Amino acid sequence: MRRLLSRFPTSMLMGLAFTIPALLTAAMLLLYHSMVAQRYLADEGVYYSEILADQILSASQRFLRLGSRDAIQEMIEDTGSKRSVVHLALIGSDGKIIASNRREWIGQPDTVIPEPSYRAVTERARATFQTQHELVDGGSRIVLVSPLLVQGDSAILWNSRGTLYLKVDHEEKLRQIYEALVRRGTVSALGILAVSLLLLLWVRAILARPILRVAAFLRRFAAGGADAPPAVEGPKEVAQLIEDVALMVRDLKEKRAALEASEERHRRLLEGAYDAILTVDPASHRILEANDMFCRMFGYGPAEARALSLLDLHPPHERESLARFYADAAERGLRSFHDVPCVTRDGERILVDLRGGPIPLESRTVTEWILRDTTDRRRLEEQLRQAQKMESVATLAGGIAHDFNNLLTGILGYTRLILGRMKATDPHRRKMEVIETSSLRAAQLTAQLLTFSHRAASRPAPVDLNAIVEEAVAELRDGLPAGVALSFHPVPNLWTVAVDRAQVRQAVLQLGVNAWEAMPDGGTIRIETGNRAVAEEDRAGTLEARAGRFVTLSVRDAGAGIDPRIRARIFEPFFTTKTGAQGAGLGLAMVYGTVKSHDGWVDVASQPGRGATFTLHFP
After folding, report:
1. Which residues 6+ apart lie within 8 Å of 369 measured at CB?
2. pTM above 0.70, yes or no
3. Chain-centre distance for alpha carbon 398
4. Alpha-carbon distance 579 to 210, whole Å?
5. Distance separating alpha carbons of residues 184 and 142, to the nearest angstrom
6. Considering only CA atoms, which of 433, 267, 285 is closest in space to residue 356?
7. Residue 340 to residue 530: CA distance in whole angstroms
8. Are 516 and 482 in contact (CB under 8 A)?
9. Taking a C-beta distance cutoff of 8 angstroms, is the pair 566, 578 a contact?
10. 285 pLDDT more than 60
11. In the prediction, which pLDDT does 42 show?
12. How far is it, in rounded angstroms, from Cα 567 to Cα 569?
């Protein structure tokens, strides 16, 4: 019933609450008046029948004493002609009908009377010698039997117990009363209904309408509406309800505003975080939520991120061991992992620091993980260690080269004095020439070491780098091996730089030689110059880089590239991948020292099988 009533609006239920009882009241009034009328008619019918019977009996006795049976018949026919008299008969003591409004019954035994209840009523009347009656045909007709005792000349009735049978129909009278009752009842019902409708309208105006306004306002408020609460009106209880609703709505608005502000702060903190933040299901390791930094770090969209598992972020061979670590963290609490290998969507391998643990929610427990990309930091740390090592090596090499250069000065000077005094035919002259040649070669190595250690004499001057490179390119083209081509692409309007012309020229020559040696099967060496403005954000990933304006010189080869395992050592002095006496391993070290002595740096880009590019930056 409650579910059924909840489907109807309040106004309809209130209308039904007023009209149904009103209609029931009107129906009960009609029923009550009908029952009263029926009882009244029954009583009045009996009374009327008894009066009629007494009149007929009195007249019959008078006429019988006078012996005028025709007068009795005429009287009975006259009485029986009335619409309310159905049957009327005078029965003698012998059971035959003396007179009746039905002529065919005269002289017949009383068995011709068709009324079923006649016998029983007659027996009661003769037994009690009093008038008896009974309602028949649903109470619409009355059967009355009255005993008759007449003393006179008639042998039939003398001291006999004759009877008078009378059947009266008061249905027409009952119908008239019913019609009157129906009219009055209808008027009463309509009046009650009208009063109930007026009451309904009045209650709706002062009670239902304000409540419906409050209900409509609450629905709009629940849907996100911001309109003001309805005005306070109606009875005291309704007005109090509206005031309470207004206070509740104001409180909810304040709490909603506070919640929205908190959610906005949380969203901004989450989206503005510099670390990737993940919410993960600890059982399946499925990612439930990821912030923008995670999407930028790994290259996935928000929808793609929610389709991933936490283990999908790691290399396949690391997933089994990491799954145990994650499960242990979900059980024991906060855990941290450092330098965890991960794979981005593009297949790039990065290192992250992981920190996280379980967070209990209302219905379940999740794990939250914070991922910080340490790839650049580790790369910068490695570059710092390499730079510190190079500085240490440069300091050591510079000290040794300086002292060794002083020794070579004496050896070379005395060797030349001796050679100047020796004759051409002297058998020891050849030995002294070997000493001089070796000393010169040692002096060149010392000069390269001094250049690497930044101790070489430098005379920087404003120059056009394109001119220096063109001189070096012309010299390189003269000594290019077969199958190796060289192209130079100078940029017009190149900025002026302050460099040592000889040192930069020697660096270009060294890079060119290094490039063609990297292409034993031939290829093209491409040399370019350019202008570059380095911003603070462009320094990421390069420790030695700094903001400012720089002139760049890049040398690209098409060789096999640099093995990643030895890339960190290519600028170390005396480190070489060449076999035999092909090189001393000071070429790239000298280039590194030249650029560093001019407050620049070297960028190296290489992929196995796709060659290498050395880019020198001069301020």
Report:
1. 277, 278, 280, 310, 354, 355, 356
2. no
3. 68
4. 100
5. 27
6. 285
7. 39
8. no
9. no
10. yes
11. 59
12. 5
Whole-angstrom distance, CA of residue 400 vs CA of residue 396: 6
State the DSSP string of 192-253.
HHHHHHHHHHHHIIIIIHHHHHHHHHHHHHHTT--PPPPPP-SSHHHHHHHHHHHHHHHHHH
Residue at token pair 């930094």: 293
Is 34 buried (19+), middle (13-18) or exposed (0-12) by CB count in 10 A? Answer: middle
Cβ proximity of 103 and 80 under 8 Å: no
At 306 the three-state DSSP class reads helix
d(C-alpha 367, C-alpha 331), whole Å: 10
Whole-number Å distance between alpha carbons of 89 and 92 = 10
Q: Under a CB-based contact definition with an 8 Å cutoff, are residues 122 and 189 in contact?
A: no
Could you tell me which of 265, 269, 287, 266 has the C-alpha nearest to residue 278?
287
Q: Which residue type, as a one-letter code, is found at position 38?
A: Q
548: left (phi over 0), alpha (psi -120 to 50) or beta: left
Position 180, amino acid: A
Three-class secondary structure of residue 67 per DSSP: coil
β-strands 484-489, 523-534 pairing:
parallel
Summarised one tens digit per residue, pLDDT across range 60-79 is 666 666 666 677 777 777 77
Mean local confidence (pLDDT), 433-445: 73
Six-digit token string for 434? 């070997």
Lowest-confidence region among 437-441, 454-458, 571-575:
454-458
**String of DSSP letters for 396-453:** HHHHHHHHHHHHHHHHHHHHHHHHHHS-TT-TTHHHHHHHHHHHHHHHHHHHHHHHHT
* pLDDT value for 166: 81
What single DSSP character describes residue 599? Answer: T
- For residue 158, the model assigns a pLDDT of 39
As given in the structure block, the two tokens for residue 302 are 């928000």
Closest CA to 192 of 74, 49, 68, 22: 22
Q: Do the beta carbons of residue 196 and residue 19 sit within 8 Å?
A: yes
pLDDT tens digit sequence for 484-510: 888 889 998 889 888 888 778 888 888
Token duo for residue 71 = 């007068």
- How many Cβ atoms are within 10 Å of 8's Cβ, its own excluded? 12
